[in-house]
Design a protein that fits this description.
Length: about 140
């Protein structure tokens, strides 16, 4: 039900992101979606990749701080208000959304990655609402 996301802390300086991407390319690991946030000193790169466990290993071998984080992949139809409806269901259940970003799936629907304070309950709420979750095998 959950997707493993690779989170990598990188120094906010020229060339560090390139090294991460080159490392994954050399390992033949495909990046499906990503999000990059930065501060003045470091960046946090979150990625959905073809082989998350191996990505973590190859990045750690290059001295990057990498970890796996379970997240939800959620399909949305291209209709006005669909994201708000989905998020409203999570909010009604008292679950906080920590972050989210777009997920490239190659189909006609929109998809997002969501990290909440309670993934199990969020998944249950969404499935009861008829929302389709994406499983790692679908990526």
């Amino acid at each position: 039900m959950f997707i493993n996301q690779v989170s990598v802390f990188i120094e906010n300086r020229t060339g560090r992101l390139d090294v991460v991407l080159e490392t994954l390319k050399e390992a033949n690991i495909n990046i499906i979606s990503l999000s990059l946030a930065d501060s003045s000193e470091y960046g946090l790169l979150r990625m959905i990749v073809s082989e998350p466990e191996r990505a973590k290993e190859v990045l750690k071998a290059k001295d990057f701080s990498a970890r796996l984080t379970p997240v939800l992949g959620v399909k949305l139809s291209h209709k006005v208000g669909q994201l708000q409806i989905l998020l409203s269901e999570i909010c009604k259940a008292g679950i906080n959304i920590e972050y989210m970003y777009a997920l490239a799936t190659g189909n006609d629907d929109a998809s997002i990655v969501i990290k909440t304070t309670d993934l199990e309950e969020a998944a249950e709420v969404l499935e009861k609402s008829g929302v389709e979750l994406i499983h790692s095998g679908e990526l």
